[in-house]
Amino acid sequence: MKNLLSMEHLTNRELISIILRAEEFERGEQHNLCRSYNVANLFFEPSTRTSTSFEMAERKVGCTVIPFDASFSSALKGESMYDTVKTLEMIGIDAVVIRAKEEAYYNELLEGINVSVINAGDGAGQHPSQSLLDLYTIHKEFGQFDGLNVTIVGDISHSRVAKSNAIALRNLGVNVRFLCPQEWAGDFEAHHSWDGLLEDSDVVMLLRVQHERHENNKNFSKESYHEQYGLTVEREARMKKGSIIMHPAPVNRDVEIASELVECERSRIFDQVRNGVFIRMAILESILKGREINDEVHSKYSIAR
Predict the structure, then answer these.
(1) Which parts of the sequence belong to the Aspartate/ornithine carbamoyltransferase carbamoyl-P binding domain (predicted)?
(2) Residue 109 contacts residue 81 (beta carbons within 8 Å)
(3) Average pLDDT of the residues in 137-156
């Protein structure tokens, strides 16, 4: 891989290889890249988990992190994304990690840019590193994907997490279901009640309610959303034995999930944050070093070449 832009561009072979490498990193296998690669993180939207997780991962694999503050960059003067990235390339940057409001912003970088581009979120488009850490979290729990039932709950139409995970999970043989209000489904077929979903879900994946998108909707209230679509204590008690709760965070407590469930026995919400560092280490190594994909992937997962 030269870039990581969308889950649509990753083969099962590639994503399983990244998961297995993350597993090695978590077991304590350390590896510095052959030389110190220069990486810049370009975050044009607010971020806590993704931005700090990438920086931690970059430092752990031996990259030199070049500071970039979007609020003081030439983008404020009207500089295009292409010109910003090309400038960093000429300075000596090897890879850029970018989050932007524009969906598929990376299309303008595919011609003429020679640095590696890692998409850290593009509008309501894709969030591939979040999807990979979610897959890693599920893999650690169940050891496989085929035949699992995953229910994704929330603002599906605006969620890059939902879209990225739907692509990857379905490609791996997972039965993905959506639950949301009718007006939040977009182009996806969705359930509009919990009936028939809780009892057989291996994973309940909750999404942040994007209040900024619904602040003018007089029909929306946090209380009614929690009552109809939130994971309440009563609903958690009905969940399948061995099933887990996930959420990409930040969490709106008592909206998507009852506050007392955020760190309950089923919850993997903070584990996901920890797993993100190992996954992003594996992503960086795969892209910058061009690490070969081991044939163990094929024998273990019967994935076609």
Answers:
(1) 2-139
(2) yes
(3) 97
Q: pLDDT digit string (tens) for 8-65?
A: 999 999 999 999 999 999 999 877 776 789 999 999 999 999 999 999 999 999 999 9
> Which range is least confidently modeled, 11-15, 146-150, 162-166, 297-301?
297-301
**Pairwise CA distance, residues 54 & 283, whole Å:** 10
Residue ranges of the chain that CATH labels 3.40.50.1370: 7-126+272-298, 128-269
Rounded to 5 degrees, φ, ψ at 30 are: -105, 150
Residues annotated in the binding site for carbamoyl phosphate, as ranges?
49-50, 99, 127, 130, 249-250
Work out the pLDDT band at 215, boundaries 50, 70, 90. Answer: low
As annotated, the binding site includes: 49-50, 77, 99, 127, 130, 160, 208, 249-250
CA dihedral 295, 299, 301, 303 (to 10 degrees): 60
Buried b (16+ CB within 10 A) or exposed e, 51-83: bebbbebbebbbbebbebebeeeebeeeeebee
Token readout for 297 is 């992937």
SS3 246: strand
The predicted pLDDT at position 292 comes to 47
Residue 55 near residue 281 (C-beta atoms within 8 A) = no
- Return the SS3 of 205: strand
- Pair 281, 259: CB distance under 8 Å: no
Q: Pick out the residues of the known binding site for L-aspartate.
A: 77, 160, 208
Which residues, listed in sequence order, are joined to residue 1 by a DSSP beta bridge?
none
Q: What is the DSSP letter of 224?
A: H
CATH topology for 7-126+272-298 is: Rossmann fold (3.40.50)
Q: Kindly indicate whether the domain formed by 128-269 is annotated with CATH number 3.40.50.1370.
A: yes
Q: What is the percentage of the chain residues whose pLDDT exceeds 70?
A: 92
